Model the fold of this input.
Amino acid sequence: MPDRGFDVEFKCIRKRYGSIEALRGVSISIRRGELLTLLGPSGCGKTTLLRTLAGFVRPTEGEVWLAGERVDEVPPARRNVGLVFQNYSLFPHMTVFDNCAFGLQMRHLDRSTIQKRVEEVLNLVHLAEFSGAYPSQLSGGMQQRVALARVIAIQPRALLLDEPFGAIDRRLRDEMQVEVRKLQQKLGITTLFVTHDQQEALIMSDRIVVMNEGRVEQEGTPLDIYDSPRSRFVAGFLGMENLLPVTVVRRTADQAIVHVTEGPDLVVPLRAAPQGDHVTLAFRAESVSLVRREESAGAEAGEASNVLSVPGTLEFLMNLGARVVYEVRLPDGKLVRGEAQRTDRTRAFGVGEPMTVTLKGDYCVLLPESGAGT
Ligand SMILES: Nc1ncnc2c1ncn2[C@@H]1O[C@H](COP(=O)(O)OP(=O)(O)OP(=O)(O)O)[C@@H](O)[C@H]1O
Ligand SMILES: [Mg+2]
Done:
């Protein structure tokens, strides 16, 4: 059995439920101590894949390896993985201490080892003083920390977290994300994390696998995925709201000159750019900037450059506390979404007014045209 430092390997996993293909050949490896996140929309197969590792779902095809052992035939209880999901699933009639001790008693550890181990894990999740409390006396966030302590106590070979913060309110969730990530790094536990929240995936992960319809769309570090999506699906899912059809006028070794709208062309760096002349220009709303036409130096005709500055008309404007979001129509009818800090400058914006839209080519990515793949 090859050991390349991978703790978990999914090899060509397929799972069919009657006519539904939940997984269509997924291969993923997780290194020892790594936190790998499955990110994707509802129904893309994240939970199904995680459950093939926990042992609750049997793959139709493929192999699951854990710590150098093929585990497809190993019953869930003997895999020694720790599973936490959205619903805390604590035993309501047991104290925090007893909830954490339960798995250790099932493993027939002696009383003093159990005492010591439970104290340790409750310290780790900052709940030592609640060891005598019942779950109903704790907040949702605290219950989820108990659920985590309980699985860490068994010293699992891998930690499986399926939307663990899904039921926790936003503010507390932000704290828990950082706390759980720190704990995972401190303990060096190989972790498979599942979420449909891109922000959460970016915060938590060493590596992200973006899934779509039972397949892997793209795999990489959080910054890879964020900066260099390779499909319209990944770009859209990670918040690149602008996906404009454009034409490639010319390519050099590391740049493409693209025709976006009437006026000068835009120079865009070539990463893993698609073939062909008809491509999609993808960029985030926050990469767009907008000024009133009368305040701009005026869009100049001329050479292609890495900054596009073109006239547009403001069509929609929404103030969201500290931010404003807007839509502006380019001369050829394309609609661009932008976002900015709300300032005195943006306060003077009015719908229907002539504006100048600016976009930096360095913040743009070229992707296949719509219809070509996803
Ligand atoms: N036991 C089952 N029987 C039949 N179909 C199932 C079963 N479990 C999952 N599916 C189907 O498999 C597909 C993938 O489901 P899965 O729960 O893995 O998605 P998910 O990515 O975890 O979604 P969510 O974000 O909503 O949790 C879906 O179409 C789902 O309806
Ligand atoms: Mg799920």
Remarks:
- The chain has a mean pLDDT of 92.
- The pocket of magnesium ion (ligand 2) is lined by residues 46-47 (CB under 6 Å).
- The CA atoms of residues 22 and 129 lie 43 Å apart.
- The two ends are 36 Å apart (CA to CA).
